[in-house]
Amino acid sequence: MALVKKPVTGMKEILPREMEIRDYVMRVIKETYASFGFTSIETPCLEDINNLCSKQGGENEKLIFKVLKRGEKLNLETATCEADLTDMGLRYDLTVPLVRFYSNNANSLPSPFKALQMGNVWRADRPQRGRYRQFMQCDIDILGEASNMAEIELILATTTTLGKVGFKNFEIRINERRLLKAMASYAGFSEDKFDVVCIILDKLDKIGPDGVKAELLEEGFSEESVNKYVALFDDISSDVSGLVKLSETLKDFLEEDVVKSLSEIIETVEKVKKADFKMVFDPTLVRGMGYYTGTIFEIAIPEFGGSCGGGGRYDKMVGNFTGQNVPACGFSIGFERIVLLLMESDFKIPGSKGKKAYLVEKDMPKDRYAEVLEKAMAERANGAQVLVCKMNKNKKFQKEQLAAEGYEEFEEFFNNPLN
């Protein structure tokens, strides 16, 4: 059997240049989130298959990497379906593991609990630009806070982090799942079809209003309901005034606190933000996860042309484990896409000390080699980053390779004594 040197499709190898940027971004994330009072936790990469297939993860539940039972538990002869063969799966996000973690450890945790979690997740998805089958997620969540203080804190912490990394002129798009339901009810769609309507609405940016209308009609909805629904999105401004205008149309179908809470979030964040971004009310924002119950939000960075993270409120998820609901809200940065944008812009890590390379002549006597090492150690003690390596015959090409890795200074050492 021939060995394969390429990684499995959708699994990414990370070269040194990118790893430096990833490490830098992770440092900024951890330091900034810690300044907002978030504390780090870690959960296993494997979860019970029942937790992962609980109909809360939307389309992602179709993308789970499932793990076969082992030993005597794996009985191929008696198995009648896939469920008989698997008992675990690789996590497809960090929210399901967090909620299980909280449900298991709530008595040992403060309330509200502000969690920071960074780790790889896996989805059997179709790989494309900025999307892999294994990728890093960076989540912050607040559990135990029912007010919109949670949303405001999450948005401020996330946007402050993006600003520190160097992103400007981006948007935080915000909406409310209860507003989506009110729009569907107003149009005359039955409650059991709300998910179908939202899935189609979520395609708006790709297929346009006419495409949304066509797909809704294909689902068998009446033309009257479809026209009434699509008309809701005409001439709605992307600020609080647009929210107020839409709520007036939906007043018989919408809870009063929805508009008040959304308005407070938008206005408060705009007032105290430090990063260069804009809060945007977007009544077409859906977010695919089935566990969202209220506010939802998404990061839109113009350079990427799509979502670079998102989150929302999921107040009923803990109750699925404990029988008692706990208010919860989270925000996830699209780590891989952010790193991709930084790589494409030839990002330079601010404040980083120059990297220096010592090129040592071949077959250097040990005493001479020790002198070179002593000099390198002295520079390292003063904060310099020094690489010591043997000098190649083609020094020009060697230096070009090192320069591509960020080395800016070169010193050559030969067998003659140091000056």
Describe, in plain words, how this protein is organized in 3D.
This protein is of the alpha/beta class and 419 residues long. Helix content is 39%, strand content 20%. It contains 14 helices and 14 strands. It has helices spanning 16-35, 49-52, 95-105, 149-165, 177-187, 194-201, 204-218, 223-231, 240-249, 256-272, 319-322, 335-344, 366-381, 395-404, and strands at residues 39-40, 46-48, 66-68, 86-90, 113-122, 134-143, 170-176, 277-281, 295-301, 306-313, 328-333, 355-360, 385-390, 407-413. It has an eight-stranded mixed β-sheet, with helices on both faces. Helix 1 (16-35) packs across helix 12 and helix 4 (149-165) runs parallel beside helix 10 (256-272). It is globular and about 90 Å long. The model has no long low-confidence stretch (mean pLDDT 90).
Features of this protein?
419 residues, alpha/beta, eight-stranded mixed sheet, three-stranded antiparallel sheet, 14 strands
Taking pLDDT < 50 over at least 5 consecutive residues as the criterion, the unreliable ranges are none
Q: How many helices? A: 14
Fraction in helix? 25-40%
The radius of gyration computed from the alpha-carbon positions, rounded to a whole number of angstroms, is 26 Å
Question: What percentage of amino acids are in beta strands?
Answer: 15-25%
Strand order of the largest sheet: 1-5-6-11-10-9-7-8
